[in-house]
Amino acid sequence: MTNQSFIDPSALRSTDHLPVRETTPDVLDLELVTNHIGKAINRGRYHGSGEALEYLQQNHCIVTVDGTTYATSAGILCFGRNPQAIFPRAVVDLGHYHGIGVDSNEVVHLEKNIGGTIFDQIERAETYLWTNTHHGMTLGDSARRIEIHEYPRAVIRELGVNMLAHRDYTRGGAAARMQLFRNRIEWISPGGLPPSITVDNILDEQWSRNPVILAILYESGYVEAFGQGLNTVVTELKNAGMAAPDFRDTGASFIVTVYGRAIEGLGNGESTARMSDRQREIRTLIQKRGEVSSREVIVLFANRADPRSIRRDLQTLTKVGVIIMQGWGRSARYYWASSAQKIEDEDS
Asked: In this structure, are 121 and 191 located in the same domain?
């Protein structure tokens, strides 16, 4: 038989399987590996060898080529003693801003080059966001206390994992970024979506840029089900009565944006269920823009409600603390309520 084509096995490998030149297994922390194995076995998520080097070999964290054993990028990023010595931009940059845009005058906290293993970065990102977003409580039936959070913790965790598990580590000049604004959080992962995956089908199709890393994160309990992370985010936000996430692919980066829960759920006991659909839309509009005039809202809803009804909606939302009003009459502007403290500070 002539002109027969063959599949090259190397073409089926992801980059995180590949050996990293001039490395040895010594760049990996075997104590981290041993701890990982023990916890994965206890979770019922790993059933192989308990010996660290065997685990690394079987799970593509080290590979042998022509008699020489090298560490792979997955091994280094998950278990490396100093991953950034080999992958300097395998880090997270964190920006926290008072306002709704990246403005040096609005900076609360900037932290560049958050390093360590992927596990270290996930924990640092989650801890910062959870600590620096709003938390409160309300009373349910029979005066039962119900905790309410600006962002569900599961969403913060899943999107931090997604940002790092699926980023393109071959883009050596790009760091992952996480940005916390007054009204939203953005997770920015280097590398656009792969071929055939779009923002429209991303919840239905499965594709992993780094399957070895993803498998290790699954064993560690950071991933609950393959290909279900973004679906979990959508479900959690829907169950919380929050706006759906925005997905954006720039080609160079994949960006997920989540808008925080309305401030009404963070202290005054009002329930989102008591809002009309139009009031919810007005709330989301102001949340995304940060501020609007009453005229802007009236124009946007001109085909659906008369100006008097819109002004009544704005008054209701202001009364329950979802938004705040500054100024009077035609000069009045309405702001997303989580900016209240900042506006008070400016006025004092």
From this structure: yes
80 and 96 inside one domain: no
124 and 214 belong to one structural domain: yes
- Over residues 50-84, the pLDDT tens digits come to 999 999 999 999 999 999 999 999 999 999 999 99
135: in domain: yes
Kindly report, residue by residue over 322-347, the tens digit of the pLDDT.
788 887 766 788 887 654 433 333 33
Q: What share of the chain is helix, strand, coil (3-state, %, to 5)?
A: 45, 20, 35
* Contact (CB, 8 A) for 100 and 183: yes
pTM score over 0.90: no
Measured distance CA(280)–CA(301) in Å, rounded: 13
Count of domains in the chain? Answer: 3
Residue 172 Ramachandran class (φ > 0 left, ψ -120 to 50 alpha, else beta): alpha
Across the strands, what pairs with 208?
A: none
Per the structure block, which two tokens stand in for 334? 């309405």
Range of the domain at 49: 9-84
| Count of other CB atoms within 10 angstroms of residue 175 | 20
DSSP secondary structure code for residue 256 in this structure: E
